[in-house]
Amino acid sequence: MSLEIKVPTVGESITEVTLSQWLKQDGDYVEMDENIAELESDKATFELPAEKAGILRIIAQEGDTLEIGAVVCTIEEGAAPAGDSAPAAAPAAEASNAAPVATAAAKDEDPDSYAAGTASPAAAKILREKGIDPSTIKGTGKEGRITKEDAEKAQPVAKAAAPAAKPTSAPAATVAPVAGSRNERREKLSSLRKTIAKRLVAVKNETAMLTTFNEVNMQPIMDLRAKYKDTFKEKFGIGLGFMSFFTKAVTTALAEWPAVNARIEDNEIVYSDFADVSIAVSAPKGLVVPVIRNADAMSLEQIEKAIAALAGKARDNKLTIDEMTGGTFTITNGGVFGSMMSTPIINAPQSAILGMHNIIQRPIAENGQVVIRPMMYIALSYDHRIIDGRESVSFLVRVKQLLEDPARLLLGV
After folding, report:
1. Domain membership flag for residue 158
2. 345-396 pLDDT, tens per residue?
3. How far apart are CA 43 and CA 41, in angstroms?
4. How far are the Cα atoms of 82, 95, 113, 114, 270 from residue 90, in angstroms, in the given order?
5. Three-class DSSP category at 111
6. Which CATH number is 58's domain given?
7. Closest by alpha carbon to 78, among 102, 55, 60, 51?
8. Do residue 199 and residue 71 come from a single domain?
9. For the chain, which end, N or C, has fewer CB atoms within 10 Å of the first or last residue's CB respectively?
10. 145, exposed or middle or buried, with CB in 10 Å at 0-12, 13-18, 19+?
């Protein structure tokens, strides 16, 4: 008797997921609660556990988009791995010259013996990406099956040999040197990328988005960090970065300009008396925006630790859906990639987003003198349906004021 393993319900708004990777191969013996696959929704990646012990029979393939409740695989009754009998047969093959011939004949006669030269789902995906024909690979798995490790070690030797073969069929003078590769590859849009695309287009079409700019002299914060970074690291066990200062400045300004922290729901404007700040993070599978809850009540040290924990989970694709939903305001830092200025897109249903950019030494006027200072452009994109120009500009000016005089962040003035 077999048990069907189906896509579980992972959130109210999630209707489908993508099977990103099989952690076990077809025919493997699995224990109850052992993770057998990774599923990717439009918000998070999570693992699919086996609901009983037995033999895994794969139905869905890597890259498939599955609806909630769809059958991913089945688990058949089985007390032990099917491969237990293989080691016992090996000595017999070595003891007799006729045994290997008999084994090969048996495979030819049995139409179900498909393992030899067959790639596992994970191996097949790797070979496709490399452009390698599985028939050219000798598998080291059970009964000659091509494992993921075989695929990772395989090299596309056919392409390297091609240039040497051309002169035999055509004169050398007709073969023009190729300046560069013109290969193309296609990848199916992941659930995360499709959702990002839909939301960004929806925001552009459904909001009255406008962006206002300002610039910040980062010298005071840089001086403060240089003076206290060692003491801060020694006391709290984490470095003192720019993001904690920006988060603190933003939460202070949000309390003074609550419309920037609001959102539209149906025909109402919802104002929040707390600040759940979303921090945009570039993860392996795309942009994710984990949330720091109650950031307005946190110290610089608590903010730095929260950012480090969430960024680590993002890199490992371990963020939960709860950790990426419910923010009231977003901060994104394009400066880490070298961006000098941009107009960030609002993270719906929020009404505003602050964009940080790179720090450039530029000449500015101070007290009638031209001096060189580390300057950063900052941008506030906002929904003009809720936030007026006075509020948006005043909010950004307040953020600038707090950053250029960081003692205000600590004194609350």
Report:
1. no
2. 999 899 999 999 999 999 999 999 999 999 999 999 999 999 999 999 999 9
3. 5
4. 15, 9, 17, 19, 71
5. coil
6. 2.40.50.100
7. 55
8. no
9. N
10. buried
Burial of 23 (0-12, 13-18, 19+ CB in 10 A): middle
Tokens matching residue 266: 């149906």
| Domain-terminating residue out of 12, 47, 76 | 76
The pTM of this model reads: 0.64
Residues 218 and 70 in one domain: no
Domains contained in the chain, number: 2
Residue 135 lies in a domain: no
- The range of the structural domain enclosing residue 263 comes to 191-411
Residue 124 within any structural domain of the chain: no
**Same-domain status, 380 and 239:** yes
What is the Cα–Cα distance from 385 to 41, expressed in whole angstroms? 31
**Rounded-to-integer distance, Cα 130 and Cα 408, Å:** 55
How confident is the model over 119-129, as pLDDT tens digits? 766 677 677 77
β-pair type (281-283, 286-288): antiparallel
Residues 6 or more apart whose CB falls under 8 angstroms from that of 283 comprise 314, 315, 317, 319
By annotation, the residues acting in catalysis are 384, 388
Count Cα atoms within 13 angstroms, Cβ side, for 307. Answer: 28
- Whether 120 is covered by a domain: the verdict is no
Last residue of a domain, one of 50, 76, 102: 76
Q: State the amino acid at position 395 in one-letter form.
A: F
Task: Tell me 213's DSSP state.
Answer: E
